[in-house]
Design a protein that fits this description.
With 375 residues, the protein is an alpha+beta fold. It folds into 3 domains: 19-134, TATA-Binding Protein (2-Layer Sandwich), CATH 3.30.310; 139-231 and 240-249, no CATH class; 279-374, 4-Layer Sandwich (S-adenosylmethionine decarboxylase). It contains 9 helices and 19 strands. It has helices at 19-29, 32-36, 53-62, 113-127, 139-152, 190-201, 234-258, 291-304, 353-366, and strands spanning 41-48, 66-70, 74-80, 90-99, 104-109, 132-134, 157-165, 181-186, 204-213, 216-222, 226-231, 260-266, 273-279, 281-284, 307-315, 320-327, 332-338, 342-347, 372-374. The strands form 3 sheets. Strands 1, 2, 3, 4, 5, 6, 7, 8, 9, 10 and 11 form an 11-stranded antiparallel sheet that branches.
C-alpha cells in the first residue's frame, strides 16, 4: 500500500496571532521534510493597499477561491475541483497569512508553480484589484540576499539563474553593443559566472536557484514575489523570509502606500480651509539617466508596456523630463518628473498601488535594473 502523501496544510485546531507564529508552527509542528519528498513549498508575497477583510474576501471569490477556515491571522483558502475530480477534491489550496498593519498577504502552498499557482492564484493577485499586487524582488535585493546566504554558507552554490537587460537600460556592460538579452544559466559555477555576465553584458539577475550543503538545502527565488523551498532545512528558508524578504516587503508597501495627493486643512477652526498636498513616489536611479536614452525611445517603450503618453516635455543639458501617463491596464492617470538621478511619480485620483508597482517594474526592466524605491 503506497505511503500517504503528508498534508502539511490541513487546518490545525488552533488560531494564529501573526504570520511569524504560523511560520514557527510550520517549523516545529509539521512534517516539511516529508512534504518536500513530493512537492516544493512555495511562498508568494503580495502587497495590499487596503485593510478590509471583506474586500479581500470579495477579490478571492471573484478569482474562484474560497476561505474554508478562519484561523485568526491565517486563512485557509482553496478552489474546489470540478465534479469530475471527485467530491471533496481541490484544484488549489493554500494558507494565507494576513498582516493588516503592514499591508501584506503571504501565501504558503505546496501546489505546483506552473500549474495551480500560475493558473489560479497569480491572476487573482495581478488582476483582482488596483490596490493589490506582487512584492517586487528587484535585482539589488536578490543580490543582497545571495551575498548574505553565501556569507553564512561559504560552500553554497548558485546553480541556476536568469539575467536580463534591455536596449534602454542605463547599465552598460564592457562587451557588445546594448540590446535586449535574457540569459538562462545552469551550472555549478554560477557564483563565478553571474558577475562575468553582469560586467560584460550589463545584465541584472531576475531569478536564482541556490544549493547549500550544510545543511543540504535548495531554494528558488524569482522577481515576482515568489520563493520556493525545494529540499532541505526549513529554518534556512524561513530565516531568509524573516530577515530579508518580509522586512523589504513591508518597506516597499509603506513607501507606495504613502504616495498620494489630497487636501490638508489649515487655518483657524472657525474659518477652515484646505490646501492641496502631494506625496510623490520617488525612484532613485543607480545610474544617471541620459538625455539621448529618453529622446531615442523611452516614450515608445512606455507605450509598448501599456503606459499611454498623453503629453511629455524633455530638456537637454541637465536632463529634465515631465510627462502625463495613462495606465491602460488599470485605467488610471498619473504624472512623472525625472532628472538624471530620480524619477518621481505623482498619482492621480484613481492611481492605485498596482499602477505604481507596475511603473516601478517598468523602470527596472527598461531604464535601470538597480533603481530602488526611496523612503
Amino acid at each position: 500500500m503506497p505511503r500517504e502523501v503528508p498534508r502539511l496544510f490541513d487546518s490545525p485546531s488552533r488560531r494564529f496571532a501573526s504570520e511569524l507564529e504560523y511560520r514557527n508552527y510550520l517549523i516545529h509542528e509539521t512534517d516539511i521534510p516529508g512534504l518536500l519528498e513530493h512537492n516544493d513549498l512555495y511562498v508568494v508575497i503580495a502587497l495590499l493597499g487596503f485593510s478590509s477583510p471583506e474586500r479581500l474576501l470579495s477579490i478571492l471569490r471573484r478569482g474562484g477561491l474560497e476561505v474554508t477556515d478562519d484561523l485568526g491571522a491565517v486563512w485557509r483558502i482553496s478552489r474546489p475541483a470540478a465534479s469530475s475530480h471527485g467530491e471533496g477534491c481541490e484544484e488549489f489550496s493554500a494558507s494565507l497569512c494576513l498582516d493588516w498593519d503592514n499591508g501584506l498577504a503571504v501565501f504558503y502552498t505546496d501546489c505546483r508553480k506552473t500549474m495551480e499557482i500560475d493558473k489560479f492564484l497569480m491572476p487573482t493577485l495581478l488582476r483582482g484589484s488596483s490596490q493589490m499586487d506582487l512584492f517586487v524582488i528587484y535585482p539589488s535585493l536578490m543580490q543582497r540576499v545571495l551575498e548574505a546566504l553565501f556569507a553564512q554558507h561559504p560552500e553554497g552554490r548558485l546553480v541556476q539563474f536568469t539575467a536580463r537587460t534591455s536596449p534602454g537600460s542605463a547599465v552598460d556592460g564592457t562587451g557588445r553593443e546594448p540590446c535586449a538579452r535574457a540569459i538562462h544559466y545552469w551550472g555549478v559555477d554560477g557564483r563565478a559566472t553571474y558577475p562575468e555576465f553582469r560586467d560584460f553584458y550589463g545584465t541584472a539577475i531576475s531569478s536564482a536557484v541556490v544549493e547549500l550543503s550544510r545543511p543540504a538545502t535548495r531554494i528558488r527565488m524569482s522577481h515576482a514575489g515568489t520563493l520556493a523551498l525545494c529540499s532541505g532545512e526549513p529554518r534556512v528558508f524561513f530565516d531568509l523570509l524573516e530577515q530579508h524578504m518580509i522586512p523589504e516587503a513591508r518597506r516597499q508597501r509603506s513607501i507606495v502606500y504613502r504616495t498620494k495627493r489630497g487636501q490638508v486643512p489649515v487655518g483657524a477652526s472657525r474659518s477652515p480651509r484646505s490646501v492641496p498636498v502631494a506625496f510623490p513616489l520617488t525612484i532613485r536611479l543607480n545610474s544617471p539617466l541620459r538625455y539621448y536614452e529618453v529622446s531615442r525611445g523611452l516614450v515608445q517603450t512606455l507605450e509598448a508596456d501599456d503606459f499611454q503618453v498623453l503629453e511629455h516635455m524633455e530638456e537637454e543639458g541637465s536632463l529634465f523630463l515631465h510627462a502625463e501617463l495613462f495606465d491602460v491596464q488599470r485605467v488610471s492617470r498619473f504624472r512623472i518628473w525625472a532628472n538624471e538621478d530620480h524619477i518621481r511619480l505623482l498619482p492621480g485620483e484613481r492611481t492605485g498601488l498596482s499602477t505604481m508597482l507596475r511603473f516601478y517594474e517598468f523602470v527596472l526592466a527598461q531604464v535601470d535594473p538597480y533603481a530602488v524605491l526611496e523612503a
